[in-house]
Write a structure and sequence with these properties.
The protein is mostly helical. Helix content is 67%, strand content 2%. The structure holds Phenylacetyl coenzyme A.
């Protein structure tokens, strides 16, 4: 098949499946995006994992545990989807450890108070849903199907985070201040999750042509902001952006400029927790070596007995 015929399949909205012919660039683009997405889910367990042992009630602890476990599951579906493109899990993990593969900048910020669990669920999962709802229609079959299940779970995550924020915002003045402080610290990093502006996004051109991405970084960021402003108003919290203003003509909120130096510094490994997150992952991976060896030897033994 030629690239032209492949593009026609994409334009007809046919899903591309792992054994179908695809241009090398399409395969590489997907391996990069899906693996970075998987790494984000796995590294993303750390900031919330930090609060499991300090959750303020048994109910809160159970919900947080379930949520963090869901994120592990999302990482595993995504690694599996990525492996269908002919790359091994081991290779993907070593790309993460060497710094070749990125993961979402948001997970390089510390979680300083219980309210941060609310801010993460509400804003980080909220931003993830906006992105992932559009990725349900991505052109690669396994990625698209994985997104359907992931979005259902993210929706629960967003609600549990919003519930924490709503409760704290209605609590004592100290609790409300904690909720506002979490919003202040997580707002800008959350809207940075959508990546650079379209004009500075080298990957968007091919991603849109191949329908890997269905909406651009700026379109998704705008959608998230438009949705979230009202949610903040309902619970009486203030979004920390003095330029945030409804624009009647555009029928969207205008918003302020992100700190792009901060964004690129975090993306390039120099955020507040980049080293800590990666070192923790490396240690967990090394500590789990015996489990991988045991599982492999068990499956070899079973195969031997079966034959
Ligand atoms: N952080 O040309 P573009 C979650 C990189 S949700 C780090 O615009 P693209 C759920 C980008 O990779 C979070 N790096 O690239 C959860 C590229 O570098 P490369 C994960 C970033 O791919 C919640 C370069 O900058 N979601 O985990 C970021 O078209 C709570 C140029 O950028 C996904 O991954 C960033 N924010 O657009 C879990 C969704 N932005 O690869 C636990 C799928 C950009 O050339 C707890 N991914 N870069 O070296 C996507 O939609 C896209 O890949 C974007 C970036 C939008 C992230």
């Amino acid at each position: 098949m030629t690239e032209e015929k492949f593009q026609k399949r994409i334009d007809r909205e046919e899903k591309i499946e792992p054994k179908d012919w695809m241009p090398e660039g399409y395969r590489k683009h997907l391996i990069r995006q899906i693996s970075q997405h998987a790494h984000s889910e796995i590294i993303g367990m750390q900031p919330e994992g930090n609060w499991i042992s300090r959750a303020p009630s048994l109910r809160a602890k159970m919900i947080l545990l379930a949520k963090v476990q869901d994120e592990a599951g999302h990482g595993l579906y995504l690694y599996s989807a990525c492996e269908t493109l002919g790359v091994s899990r081991q290779e993907l993990v070593s790309q993460l450890h060497s710094g070749k593969a990125k993961y979402s900048s948001i997970f390089n910020y510390p979680t300083l108070s219980w309210a941060d669990m609310g801010a993460i669920g509400w804003l980080v999962d909220g931003a993830a849903i906006v992105n992932q709802v559009s990725l349900q229609r991505t052109s690669f079959g396994p990625y698209s199907r994985g997104m359907v299940k992931i979005c259902k779970e993210e929706s629960f995550h967003q609600r549990q985070g919003y519930e924490i924020m709503a409760q704290m915002a209605q609590g004592t003045s100290e609790q409300k201040a904690m909720a506002q402080d979490a919003l202040n610290r997580f707002w800008w990093p959350s809207i940075m999750m959508f990546g650079p502006n379209d004009s500075d996004s080298p990957r968007t051109g091919n991603a849109m042509k191949w329908k890997i991405k269905r909406k651009t970084n700026d379109e998704l960021r705008q959608e998230f902001i438009d949705k979230t402003v009202n949610q903040a108003e309902i619970i009486g919290l203030t979004i920390p952006d003095k330029d945030l203003k409804w624009n009647d003509e555009r029928q969207h909120y205008d918003f302020g400029e992100m700190d792009w130096d901060e964004f690129w510094s975090v993306v390039n490994g120099n955020g507040p927790c980049n080293k800590q997150r990666l070192n923790h992952h490396k240690k967990a991976h090394d500590d789990g070596q015996w489990v991988r060896e045991a599982a492999k030897s068990y499956s070899q033994k079973k195969e031997l007995i079966a034959n």
